[in-house]
């Protein structure tokens, strides 16, 4: 068998959680779940007994505040791509083992830095400076031993050449990640890699076949797998410079069309489509204005031109609203750079034999309306957490990723239970709620009504319920936001949700 080559493996612990939560650890107790089974969990969750492989209900039984998120393999890969690119700048020939785990040949980088330990320390420093302080590096004979070394107790572990078998010997056979084989070995009394490596190679092959022989070689430190570098990323970034600078959004959008076509051709040559793009605008003062843009399916040339125009219009509107003494230095545009951030296989976006049906027509119609009305002309609604109806509704422009600023699953004391009003007034509109004597209905500090409600908005009250107090931010110096809610049915069988602040009444929503 070919002698193992020296390999350097970089391991980013809990990478799926890093990709899902963003930022380095520590993270709050969180678990990623697939098929109702925990795939990964944070260190803070493990402290309470949560483990990968547990059923969801068992994990939540260990800690009631455990946050549960779905596991997304594609998200892990997208988030790890910039890390691979960073590693490749300092250690060419990086190979992706899986998201959160990469390998490089140790020979070249160790010669450059004067030794394997020095090379590992250099990479750890570079990655820590880039925001990845949790990285661990292992160097050994072959990727298998190097990966186990990276999972050691120290940030950097170097197994000297020829000592892989001794390093692996005390480790349990479960590190081979073959449940069927390792379960049988444990029942036979073979519990460590040293015990497994001590078995006769021919007998192992006869009993367990080629798969067993391969794992037997790994246990003996004879990992002959080469580190195959990943193919280089296609060059998809395109930019255009203007001399003199262009000031109008329509001027820049027209001038950038040829550059957009070049981006689309580069994507087509790589057989991919763009689902997220970053547009960089550089003005004649040297300021850079960057913004990422998402698309519900994939960008075409017209979509990219629209995003350039919308970004310029937003910058112009922001500069116009700023006070004179705080106005941003926004001059004419001298450079536009289009950077595809997330791409997908073009085959996943090909229409079917008879077209894509309703979804395709709907997307085309909505995108057309958005082109005419602007970026925020078409929005989608998402549910957020909050006590007031306006806080629970988040409107996101079509194509953007909807993110709720407040978790709707958390408890919100004082919030309205289902069913919620079908119509929400943003902002709440003033409304008259009168007592039988014709005066304004009042609520005292104890939450008691001055009288039964008689009329609302000039109409007779048929039924009512409440009041229910709501008080946010009690610690606020200005008193926070407080009020008392009522549900009222008027003479036309319309149900209103109203609230009182001081001596004024406001309509928060209306049931239909």
Automatic annotation (TrEMBL):
rRNA processing listed as a keyword: no
Enzyme class: transferase
Region (Disordered): 399-419
Skewed-composition ranges (Pro residues): 410-419
Keywords on record: DNA damage, Nucleotidyltransferase, Transferase
Any Pfam family matching the protein: IMS
Positions of the UmuC domain: 29-150
Domain of life per record: Bacteria
GO annotation (BP), single: DNA repair
CDD domains referenced in this protein's UniProt entry, alphabetically: PolY_like (cd03468)
GO molecular function annotation: DNA-directed DNA polymerase activity
InterPro entries: DNA/RNA_pol_sf, SulA_CellDiv_inhibitor, UmuC
EC number in record: 2.7.7.7
Protein name: DNA polymerase IV
């Amino acid at each position: 068998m070919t002698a193992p080559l020296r390999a350097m493996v970089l391991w980013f612990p809990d990478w799926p959680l890093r990709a899902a939560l963003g930022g380095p650890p520590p993270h709050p107790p969180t678990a990623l779940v697939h098929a109702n089974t925990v795939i990964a969990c944070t260190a803070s969750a493990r402290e309470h007994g949560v483990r990968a492989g547990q059923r969801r209900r068992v994990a939540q039984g260990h800690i009631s505040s455990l946050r549960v998120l779905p596991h997304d393999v594609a998200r892990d890969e997208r988030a790890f791509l910039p890390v691979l690119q960073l590693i490749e700048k300092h250690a060419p020939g990086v190979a992706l083992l899986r998201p959160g785990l990469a390998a490089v040949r140790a020979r070249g980088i160790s010669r450059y830095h004067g030794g394997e330990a020095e090379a590992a320390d250099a990479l750890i420093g570079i990655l820590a400076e880039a925001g990845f302080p949790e990285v661990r590096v292992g160097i050994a004979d072959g990727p298998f031993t190097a990966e186990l070394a990276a999972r050691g107790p120290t940030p950097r572990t170097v197994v000297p050449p020829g000592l892989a078998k001794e390093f692996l010997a005390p480790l349990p056979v479960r590190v081979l990640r073959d449940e069927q084989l390792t379960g049988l070995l444990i029942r036979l009394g073979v519990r460590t890699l040293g015990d497994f490596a001590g078995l006769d190679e021919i007998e192992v092959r006869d009993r367990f076949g080629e798969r067993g022989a391969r794992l037997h070689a790994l246990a003996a430190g004879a990992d002959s797998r080469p580190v195959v570098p990943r193919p280089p990323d296609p060059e998809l970034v395109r930019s255009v410079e203007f001399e003199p600078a262009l000031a109008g959004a329509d001027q820049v959008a027209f001038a950038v069309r040829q550059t957009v076509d070049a981006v689309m051709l580069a994507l087509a040559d790589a057989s991919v489509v763009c689902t997220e793009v970053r547009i960089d605008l550089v003005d004649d003062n040297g300021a850079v204005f960057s913004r990422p843009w998402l698309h519900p399916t994939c960008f075409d040339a017209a979509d990219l031109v629209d995003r350039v125009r919308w970004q310029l219009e937003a910058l112009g509107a922001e500069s116009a609203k700023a006070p004179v003494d705080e106005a941003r230095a926004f001059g004419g545009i001298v450079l536009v750079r289009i950077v595809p951030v997330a791409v997908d296989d073009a085959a996943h976006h090909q229409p079917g034999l008879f077209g894509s049906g309703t979804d395709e027509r709907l997307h085309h119609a909505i995108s057309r309306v958005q082109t005419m009305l602007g970026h925020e002309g078409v929005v989608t609604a998402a549910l957020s957490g909050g006590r007031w109806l306006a806080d629970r509704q988040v409107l996101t422009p079509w194509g953007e990723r909807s993110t709720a600023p407040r978790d709707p699953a958390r408890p919100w004391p004082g919030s309205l239970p289902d069913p919620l009003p079908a119509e929400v007034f943003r902002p709440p509109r003033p409304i008259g709620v009168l007592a039988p004597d014709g005066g304004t209905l009042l609520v005292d500090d104890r939450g008691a009504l001055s009288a039964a409600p008689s009329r609302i908005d000039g109409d007779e009250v048929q039924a009512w319920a409440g009041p229910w107090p709501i008080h946010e931010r009690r610690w606020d110096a200005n008193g926070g936001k407080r009020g008392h809610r009522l549900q009222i049915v008027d003479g036309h069988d319309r149900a209103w949700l109203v609230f009182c602040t001081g001596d004024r009444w406001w309509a928060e929503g209306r049931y239909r």
